[in-house]
Design a protein that fits this description.
This protein has five helices and nine strands; from the N terminus they run βββββαβαβαβαβα. By secondary structure, the chain is α/β, with parallel strands linked by helices. The strands form two sheets. The protein has a seven-stranded mixed sheet with strand order 1-3-2-6-7-8-9, sandwiched between helices. Strands 4-5 form a two-stranded antiparallel sheet. Helix 3 links the parallel strand 7 and strand 8.
Amino acid sequence: MDLIHTLYEPAGDGPHPTIIALHGWGANALDLQGLAPYIAGGKFMVICPQGPLEVPIGAISGYGWFPIRTGSQPREDQIDEAVERAAKFIDAALARYPVNPHKLVMLGFSQGGVLAFRLAFRQPERFAALVGLSTWFPPELKGNIANREAIERLPTLIQHGRADEMIPLSRAKESLEHLRELEVPVTFREYDCGHEITASSLEDLSEFLAAKVL
């Protein structure tokens, strides 16, 4: 496995329902791992890979999945490269860890959410649910869907803060409309918060995954 990653494994031998969780720009493999014991009572194994791109943040470094440049769109070839690398990581994780392949969830926060959408739309039949947190749906995916029937059966949750200073709520609402046009079974929740995950959103996430996956 060529990506640093963290792992939360529930008690028992498995196979376990599993969440692949992709962090946002400037974070790391530990960023979402702390949520694991609180998602659906800790019943999910949570695997958090770390983006391969080093992002200097003052005296420390964070990590990302593809370069971001102020005032310009990310390059498609660099996004594709990140998707390929994440896809290979998922293949390796499923081979190495006691994952229940029928209860596999794709989750991403912020930049990681963009990858989560791309990975899920690439192989929608592979996932039991899709979660996008404080992120946006890449509209170009609408013209390149591998399995439309599987997309229309993929339970999807979008959560976003009304005061998000990084990605405006309007982008989340645009994402919602794109998904509805594709007849994706999508649930949308917004919160009085910024670019973050709150106790309320975590509770809603747990209820969603318990109902749709467990």
